[in-house]
Amino acid sequence: MKRKVVAIAVAVLILAGVAAWQLILPERLTASTLEKAAQVQKRLDQEATGKVPAETPPVETAQAQPTPAPKPADPAKPAESAKAADPNVFKVKFECSNGNFVVEVHRDWAPLGAARFEQLVKEGFYDEARFFRVVPNFVVQFGLAADPQVSAKWRSQNLKDDPVKQSNAMGTITFATAGPNTRTTQLFINLVDNARLDGMGFAPFGKVVEGMDVVKAITSQYGEMPQQQAIELHGNAYLSSQFPNMDYIKKATIVP
């Protein structure tokens, strides 16, 4: 009888243990699953906020640092924009029979000369004008209108001289003169450094920034043969008949 009671007691304990295990096991499995899920979610949250590096490195982003100050993403662009917006600088593109070149004008170099040049370009004065004087290793000269009536309009519109602030270095563009305060429309581009002209009152107002090779390639076939008085009286009719191979400006325009 005693053994039977003990056997029954043992059986009860075993059944209770099995029942308890069945109750406990699902709870442990559920907790484990929840814990893993929580860890996955936590990692996703951390990667989203950048606190834990992802397997693929994220795109670098600028971070505020007290010292030194963060640099702009592209420091060159603001400088270029500022330069483009500078009211004291503008560019003129010359489309010529032998190619194109660009002149950059600086108003502060020679304010009166720069203003006159801008006005003439806007009016189309230099369109179809010939490079009527080309002296190798010295200058290329132009600025007498294709139409003699247009030249006549400007013949007496003399400018006062600007102080010489820049040297007549290679590529600079300057008004030609016949003496003090006689600048009108004629220009020349220095093919070499002509510093000796500085002391003679020739004040550059700009420089060739693109296509200097085109300027140097302008034909010098006729040198200084064309007569300026004949150009003023007859324009391109005279030049085309006497100097058919002369290079010329198709169009001059202000560009950004």
Name some characteristics of this structure.
single chain; 256 residues; alpha+beta; Cyclophilin; 7 helices; disordered N terminus
Please give a structural write-up.
It is a single chain. With 256 residues, the chain is of the alpha+beta class. It folds into two domains: 1-55; 82-255, Cyclophilin. It is built from seven helices and eight strands; from the N terminus they run ααββαββαβββαααβ. Strands 3-4-6-5-7-2-1-8 form an eight-stranded antiparallel beta sheet. Helix 4 crosses helix 6 (228-234). The chain is globular. The model is unreliable at 1-34 and 40-84 (pLDDT under 50).
In short:
The protein has 256 residues and is an alpha+beta fold.
What is the topological layout?
Layout: H1 2-49, H2 76-84, E1 89-96, E2 99-106, H3 111-122, E3 133-135, E4 139-142, H4 148-154, E5 172-175, E6 187-190, E7 204-210, H5 212-216, H6 228-234, H7 236-242, E8 249-255
Antiparallel strand pairs: 1-2, 1-8, 2-7, 3-4, 4-6, 5-6, 5-7
Low-confidence stretches: 1-34, 40-84
Number of structurally distinct domains: 2
Mean pLDDT, as a whole number?
79
Number of helices: 7
Helix content: 25-40%
Structural class designation: alpha+beta
Apparent shape = globular
Radius of gyration equals 42 Å
CATH architecture of the largest domain: Beta Barrel
Main sheet: strand order: 3-4-6-5-7-2-1-8
- Can you write the helix and strand succession as a string? HHEEHEEHEEEHHHE
CATH T-level topology of the largest domain: Cyclophilin
Q: Could you give the count of β-strands?
A: 8
Distance between the termini: 114 Å
The CATH C-level name of the largest domain is Mainly Beta
Output the CATH homologous superfamily of the largest domain: Cyclophilin-like
